[in-house]
Amino acid sequence: MSKKILILAGDFVEDYELMVPFQALLMVGYQVDAVCPDKKAGDQIRSAVHDFEGDQTYSEKPGHNFTLNATFADINVEDYAGLLVPGGRAPEYLRLNCEVIKIVQHFHEAGKPMAAICHGLQLLAAADVLKGKSMTCYPACNPEVKLAGGEYVEVPVDQAHVDGNLVTAPAWPAHPTWLAKFIKVLGGKIEI
Known about the structure:
Blueprint: E1 4-8, E2 13-14, H1 15-27, E3 31-35, E4 44-51, E5 59-67, E6 82-85, H2 90-94, H3 98-110, E7 114-117, H4 121-126, E8 134-135, H5 142-147, E9 151-152, E10 161-163, E11 166-169, H6 175-185
Parallel strand pairs: 1-3, 1-6, 2-4, 6-7, 7-11, 8-9
Antiparallel strand pairs: 4-5, 10-11
């Protein structure tokens, strides 16, 4: 099986939810290709840091520029073992791209592992791949999960939920658990 992971990202993706999984999956031996529609390897996307500071919702601050390492137009979804969808604001507009939707549907139909965090579930909901599945996400995305036929599961912000090939988490504080569970679903061995 391929050891390649595809990450779908775009401008104002959540900084930690892109950078940490990208680096962690590389560290444990996966080839990780981060792509964005209409961009090529070497192009940059901007990120935003979402933080939890006691307000009614998260705050947003400028993040880093992230250099994409693969070209969206060149990817072949058959080459990838798994899909990772970070949150932030990127999923709200990436879901409008027909090619992005087809990519998500491919992973779903093939039963390949998919990991989504925070607002990443917006993209999966738009691709109509949540029916009959249970998942978690940032609580404000709960209505979209339900409207897409999924079951929202409330978990602490530092935990993750698995339903078959789908691994989800509410936000970046869940990275250790979320990534360990994703690697396990991919067939790797990580102690959790």
